[in-house]
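Feature request, filed as a ticket because there's no other form

It would be nice if the structure record came with a short human-readable summary line next to the C-alpha cells. Right now we just get the raw output. Example of a typical job, pasted below so the devs can see what we mean:
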Amino acid sequence: MQTLIGRLFLVPLLAVVAALSLSTQAFAADTWQPRFNPSQHVYVEPALTSSANAPVNVSGLEQDLVQFGQKHNLQIFFVMAERGTENIDNAQFGARMIDRLLASWQGSNGFPADNYVLITVYRLPGGDWQKTARGGNLGPRAISLGLTVSQFQDIVNAHKGRLQNNDVRGFVRNAAGDVNSAIDARIAQAAQAERDRIAREAQAERDRIAREAQEREDAARRAEQMKTFVTVATYGGPPLVIIIVLGVLFFVTRRKRAQAEGLLNGKRSDAQNLGARYTELEDNYLGFLDSNKGWDGRLKNRSLTEFRAAVALYSQLTTAKLAFSGRFDAAQAAFDGNRNPFYWGGYNKTIELLTVAQITVTGAELTDDQRTLFGGTVQEKTYELSGLMTEMEDVYKSCKSKLSALKTAMHKVRENQGDVARLIQEVEDMKPQLTAAELTFDPYTETMASLTGARDAFIAIMNSDPLEASDDSQAVEDGVEALKKTLTRAVTLKASLTSTATAIETSAQKVAATRGKPADYNYPEVGNNAVDKLPVNLLLAEETGNPDTQLKNARDFLASAGKHVLAGQLDKADEAKASAAKEAKAAADLVDAIVAAAAFIQAGVPNIRKAVSKLSSEITGGDADVDELKAGFLKKNYEGQPEKLVAAKSVRDKTEAELAKVKKAFFEQRYLAGRELLETLGSDIQTSRDAIVEVDTCLKTLKANREHAKSTVASAADLAAALVRKLKSNDFTTSRATDDAYAAQQPVLTRQKADVELDVTDWPAAAKAADELLGKLKGIDGDIDTQKRAYENAKIAISNLGSAVKASQGNCDHDYIRQPALNKLAEGEGALDKANGAIKVAKSDWNAIAAATEKGKDACTKANELSAADKKAGTEAQAAINAASTKITSVEGKDYSDSKTIGGRHRTFGQNVSANTSNATSELRSARTKMSSKDYEGAKKDADDALRAAKKAESDADAVTAAAIAAAITTYNNEQAEQRRQEEAASRSSSSNFDSGSSYSTSSSFDSGSSSTTSSNFD
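Raw output as currently delivered:
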C-alpha cells in the first residue's frame, strides 16, 4: 500500500519538474545547430572560425570527407559547435544534441538516411580546447558494414589529442580514415567468416547425426522412465504424476531451445556473410548497374551480353539476400515468441524454418527502383536453405568477375588508345633514321596502314563494346610495338653489314699475304731438295684447298643481305649476313690448315720411317709365334692369328710407295692431300703392330691353359681319393644324394686324366672341364660337412621342443583353460614324438626334422597365448559378475528420498520411490550361465550390462526424486515471477518514459577537469 501511495504522489511531482525544465530552456542560449545542405559535409559554428583566441581552420576538409566516403559509398558529415546553456548533464549532452540534430536533418530533402556517418565535437564555452565532447551517429549502411557504435566512439576518442592542439582538420581526417579501416577489417573478417561457415556446416551435419542418435537414446530412456513414473504414480497419487510430467516437459523445452538457438547463431553468421558480399558488389560496381547512366542502351554485342548477365546475377543475389533475411527474421520471431517453459512449439518452428523448410526466391520483396534496375525480371527458384548459400557464393563470384572484366576493359581500352598514339608517333619519328641508313619505309607501309585501320576500328566501338575493343586495342598496340622494333632492327642490321664486309676483306688480305710468301720445299730426306722449275711462292690452289671459293661465296652472301634489308626481309638478311661471315672465316681457316699441313708432312715423314722399321723387326717375332701355334695347338684355338701377320707384311711392303705419293704431293703444293696420305699410312702401321702383339698374347694364353688343365686334374685326383675315406666315416649323416654325386664324378675324372696326357688337345676346353670337376668334388666335400652339422642342429632343436612342450603343459594347467589351447598343446606334443622317431633313421633330411620342431614350438607358443587369454578372460568375467551382484544388492537396498527447502518451506520428496532392478538381475543370470559354459567374453559383457542396468535403475530412481524437486521449484518461481509482473505493471502505469534518441548515437562526456563534469559515457 505504501508503494502505491508513493507512486500516486510521484506523477504530479514529475509533471511540475518537467514544466519547470521546459520553461527554463525557453529562455536559454541554445547550442548552435546547422540546417542540412545536400552539397555540404562540414558544418562549423561561425563564431568558432572567427574566434580571435583559437580560430578553427577546416580548409580543404570538405573534399577530404567526400573522398573518404567514396571508398564505401558513405556520406561523412562533421558538425562542431560550442556548448549552449541547455539544462543537460555534461555526460549526456553530446548524445542529446546529436539526436536533436538528426531529428531536424532527417526531414530535409536530400539527406542520405541510409548511408550517412555523422562526427560531432562540442566544446565548453571560453575557447578551452581541453574540454570537448566527441561523438556522432551511424546510418544503417555503416552498421551493416560491421562498424559498431562502441568502435565508432573509440575512434573519435583516439584522436582527441589533436583537438587539444586545435588541429580540427587532423582530428576529422584521422577519424574518417579509421572508419574506413574498421570497415575494411570487417570485410576481411566476413571473408574469413565465410570459410568458417563452410566448416561449421560440415560440423553441424555431424552434430545433427549425433544429436538424432542422442534423441533416439533419450526417447528410449524417457519411455523407460515413464514406466517407472507409472509405478510411482500408483503409490504417489495424481499430484506426483503432474509434477513429474511438468519436469519432463521443462527438460525437453530446454533442449529444444538450445538446438534452435544454435541454428539461429549459425544462420546469423550466414546472413552477415551474404550481406558483406552484396555490399562489396554495391560499393565497387553499383555504378555499372545504374540505369540513369544508360549502359543498357549504350553497350552492344559481347559487352552487352556480359552486362545483362551480370545484371541478372546481381538481381538473383539481391532477391536471395532479401528472402534469406525474411526467413531468418521469421525464425527469430518464432524463437522470441516461445516464452512458456513447458512448451516448445516456437522452437520447433525455428528449427523447421532453418533446417527442413525450403525457401522460394520470387523477387516480390524488390522495390520499384530495383525492378527497373534489373529489367523487371527475376528468376523464381526454390532452394534448401544451405543450398541457397552455396549457390549465392557462386553467383557472387560470377557477377563480380563479369563486372570487374567490364570495368577493367573500359580502363584498359583508353589506356591502350594513348599507348597506340604514342607508338605511332615514335614510328613516324624513326623515318629519318631509315633515310640516314639508306633505307626506305616502303616495305612497311602496308603494315602501318593495316594497324591504323585496326586502331580506328577499336576506337569506333570502345564505348559500345569495351570488352571486344580492349582485346583489339591490345593487338594493335602489340602490332605497332613490333613494327617499331622491326624498324630499329633494320637500321641496326644495315649498319652491321659494314663489319661483315670488313671481315671478308680481312680474310682476302690474309689469302693474298700468304700467297706472297715463298714456298718451303725442304723435304725431310737427303737429296730431295731440288726446286728447279717449281713455283717460288705458295699457290693455295689445290682442288680442295683454294680459299678463293669461300671468299666469292662470302661476297655473294653479303650482297644478298644488303638487298634483303632494303626490301624489309630482315630474317633472310640475317641468314645471308651469317653465311657471309661463316664463309669469310672458312677462307681464313683454310689458309691456316694448308700451312699447317705442309709443316705436318715435314715433321711426319721421319716418324713414319721409324714406325715401319719397328714393324719390320716385330714381324720376325710374329712369324715365330705363328709357327709355334701351328705346331703345338689345334687350329680352332688360334684361328685368325696367322692372317694378322699377312696384313702387317702388306703394310710394310707398301709403305715406300705411299711415301713416294706423299713426296709428290708436297712438291706439287698439294699439302692437304699429302697430309691425308701420311695420316692414313701411320694409322695402318700402328694397327699392324697392335695385331702382332695380339698373336703373341694368343700363344701365351694357350700355353697357360695347358698347364692349368694338367695341374687341376692332378688336384682333383688327390681330392677324390680323400673323399672315399670321409664318406665311409660319415656314412650315417651323409645323404644318398651326396653318395650318388660322388659316384657320378668317377668316370669324369678318368676321362680328364686321359685327355691331359695327350700332346695336342683342346686346351681351353680341357682347362674349363678340369675346373668344373674340381669344383664339384669340393662341393661334395662341403655337403658332407653341412649334413653332419644339420644332424647336430636337429638334435638341439628336438631338445628345445621338449622344453617348450613341458613349459606349455604347466601353463595350461588351470581351471579356465578351453579346448583351442589344449588342441595347440597336443600339436606340440605330437611334433615332439614324430621328431624323436625321425632322428634315429640314417640319412634322413635333418633340416626338415629341425623345421618340423619349429612348427611344434609355434604350436606351444600359441597354446601359451590362448591359455593366458583364457585365464585373463575367465578372471575378468568372474570379477564382473561379482561387481554386478554387489551393485544390484546395493541399489535394491538404497533410500531415494530427499529433502529441500523451497520458499521457506521444508519438504521431503521421493519417499515411495524404489529402483527397478529386474533388467539387471536378468543380465546377471545370463552372465552366470555363460560363465559355466566357459563363454567368458559373453559372461563379462552380460555382467557389465547388468552393472550398467543397476546403475541406470539407481539413476532413474534418483531422477524421479530430482524431477519432483525441479517441478516444485519451477512452480514456485513462476508464482514469484507473476507476482513481480503484477507489481511492475502497476508501477509503469504511474510513470512516464522520457527516453529518446537514435539507437546508433554515441558521445563521450566532456573531458574531466571540472567538478561539474562526469566521466561516464552515454552509449
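Something like this underneath would help us a lot:
Confidence is low (pLDDT under 50) at residues 1-28, 989-999, 1008-1019.
The two ends are 37 Å apart (CA to CA).
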